[in-house]
Amino acid sequence: MNNGFETVIKQTDNTVAKLPLVAAVIALGGLADAIYLTVKHFTGEAVPCSIVEGCEQVLTSSYAEIFGVPLAAFGALAYFTAFSLAILAAFGNRQMWTLFGIQVVLMAIFTAWLVYLQAFVIEAFCQFCLISAAVTLVLLTIFLVSGFSRARQ
Amino acid sequence: MENKKIINNNEINNNSNINSNNATKKSNLPLALIGLALLAAIAGGWWFYSNSKPQSAVKSNTAKSNVNSANSTNKNPATDETAALKLYENAPSGATPPNLQGSPDALVTIEEFADFQCPTCATVHNKMKEIVAPYGNRIKFIYRSYPLIQIHKNAYEAAVAAEAAGLQGKYWAMQDQLFTNQPNWANSQNARQLFEGYAGKIGLDMAKYQNDVVGLPAKTRVDADMRRGQSLKISGTPTIYINGKTVDFAQFDVQPMRQIIDAELQKAAAGGASQTQTKPAANQAQTTNSANQTTTTNVTAAKNSNVKPK
């Protein structure tokens, strides 16, 4: 009886232990997306306005830059930091996982604001920005799942 | 005994060395992974950046061969080009006389469909000024409003404001104001008031402007341009035609555009003008009244003096 219960706990433990690694891989996806957007910004390749796409509106809006630095570059930095923290956590540094959580929560708040801007202020959506938002959401979910799993134990 | 002790001590030392080596390896692995990711990110970004740049260089070199016919597919370029030219010829003429710079009798016609609220159109606007400036009366540049009303809430009103200014001979000055100040009015709830500010700035008779902005003539001209754009099946802005053939927007820049224009001018000079000159463009040239020409020339001169080198 006890053995079965212990096995379940061990399996859950293993899954939870792997979550930082999963988060790191997903953060890499976000990093690639943010790098793509940053490069697009610097090459200045104009995208024609089209009825069906809104990328050019979002990426050329006044919200696309902070002090002349493209928002995507901040995104790349954030994803790289998230990746680094997740990797350190995956190798046993629990404090880094806490830091990862704090960062991901901040990223999620910022992302929510960006999605709001796209929906209600710019009134156009950029698919690459939405991919980034989805990545942040997944990272937040992973962190919350790991938190709940540990709390249960 | 002593030998045994020494051996044991050695073993302990070796074990502790192995353990510390393992620990070092383990602690270095995450850092190595982070470093690797950083390198990959920098290398990937650089690769993507440098791959984007040479493409634009190639674009300018191959610009001549990249004047594509409207709505063309890869099935049969010759047939498609003919069909596209036919579509261009048969499309409704748009606002008459059009908003035109250069000479209405020029053998090379550049026709741009743009949306005042489109950010890319604002970028193209500056480049277009740079492109057409040196050609003077050797070309005919027609600007047509094609507001994407589905996504740009103030675009139609901006087009009407420009036409209202045009009724006082200041279309280009207003066009400049609208594009330059685009970020200020694009999503504003008070776009109309902002447009009035620009109208005042360029010295319009405000009473007449306010009348024209709500009157039919200005709107009719915008609608006529939109009808022409719709029948040309324009799906995005800016869309640029040179002698009836669309310019692939991926190739759009000052040098490639000048190469295309130069090639068309050469063709025209070599006698191919009668073939390449399209019917509506010729009609537009004939119907452009002298008052409009004078205005255009004057405004162009004023505008050129305001050209800011990029």
Low-confidence stretches of chain A: none
Instruction: Give the CATH superfamily of the largest domain in chain B.
Output: Glutaredoxin
Name of the CATH class of the largest domain in chain B: Alpha Beta
**Count of helix runs of chain B:** 12
Oligomeric state of the chains in view: heterodimer
The greatest inter-chain interface is formed by: A-B, 37 and 37 residues
CATH fold assignment of chain A: de novo design (two linked rop proteins)
Sheet with the most strands: spatial strand order of chain B: 1-7-6-3-4-2
The low-confidence parts of chain B are 53-75, 273-310
How far is the first residue's CA from the last residue's CA of chain B?
A: 88 Å
CATH architecture of chain A, by name, is: Up-down Bundle
Strand fraction of chain A: under 5%
What layout of secondary structure does this protein have?
The complex is a heterodimer of chains A (153) and B (310).
Chain A: H1 2-43, E1 49-50, H2 55-59, E2 65-66, E3 69-70, H3 71-90, H4 94-121, H5 127-152
Chain B: H1 2-61, E1 67-68, H2 77-90, E2 99-102, E3 108-114, H3 119-132, E4 139-145, H4 155-166, H5 171-180, H6 182-185, H7 191-201, H8 206-214, H9 216-231, E5 236-237, E6 239-242, E7 245-247, H10 254-276, H11 279-287, H12 290-304
Parallel strand pairs in B: 3-4
Antiparallel strand pairs in B: 1-7, 2-4, 3-6, 6-7
Helix pairs in contact in B: 3-10, 4-5, 4-7, 4-8, 4-9, 5-12
